[in-house]
Amino acid sequence: xxxxxxxxxxxxxxxxxxxxxxxxxxxxxxxxxxxxxxxxxxxxxxxxxxxxxxxxxxxxxxxxxxxxxxxxxxxxxxxxxxxxxxxxxxxxxxxxxxxxxxxxxxxxxxxxxxxxxxxxxxxxxxxxxxxxxxxxxxxxxxxxxxxxxxxxxxxxxxxxxxxxxxxxxxxxxxxxxxxxxxxxxxxxxxxxxxxxxxxxxxxxxxxxxxxxxxxxxxxxxxxxxxxxxxxxxxxxxxxxxxxxxxxxxx
Length: 250
What we know:
Blueprint: E1 2-3, H1 8-16, H2 21-29, E2 37-41, H3 47-54, E3 58-63, H4 66-75, E4 80-84, E5 96-101, H5 111-124, E6 125-136, H6 138-144, E7 148-154, E8 159-169, E9 174-184, E10 190-200, H7 204-213, E11 216-222, E12 237-244, H8 246-249
Parallel strand pairs: 2-3, 2-5, 3-4, 5-6
Antiparallel strand pairs: 1-10, 6-12, 7-8, 8-9, 9-10, 11-12
Helix pairs in contact: 2-3
């Protein structure tokens, strides 16, 4: 379960503290032909798609947060279309040169929905298309676990204080994150938002096996969007590039 229903402009501020947009853009653009068709599953506020749209790609983004999709549509973006809905339920007759899911979106899905999502995604891809997945795997969760955390995110006129409580469901292999966002806006007023999300604990072998079962072949693995090698110790995110198998692409 997830709930990301708070103003998208605040998510944009927090996102900048976690992500490197230039590196992500260069990496994604290297996986699709110039001017190709791109599908972002879990597009959030559209940050990646707006940048790819500027480069001439035709883009579609799907996200379940009404607040984030509303913000993304207001922010615009050349050649970018947004769909409000769940990634695993998205259907279309269009085929894409690149489908990607970033920033732990894969971890938000229950384990039993992952194979369905990947099988559906294979049908969204053109025969020569590529799938890019970024997800947090086991040691991300084990080593970063803290029952309570406080973090601050700011611009010149906005301060966001994020209070987080983590709990573990060992039987379901999920982490529950409950957050309270305290936002001091440019006018000095303070607003409060509640946010929560569950994350499934995934491993590299599990995701590789699901990809194979869904008709994909893994073509590359990295430890980040600068194409650095996946670290042997297993910490940090894992970025996988996969292609439809010859039989599945027919």
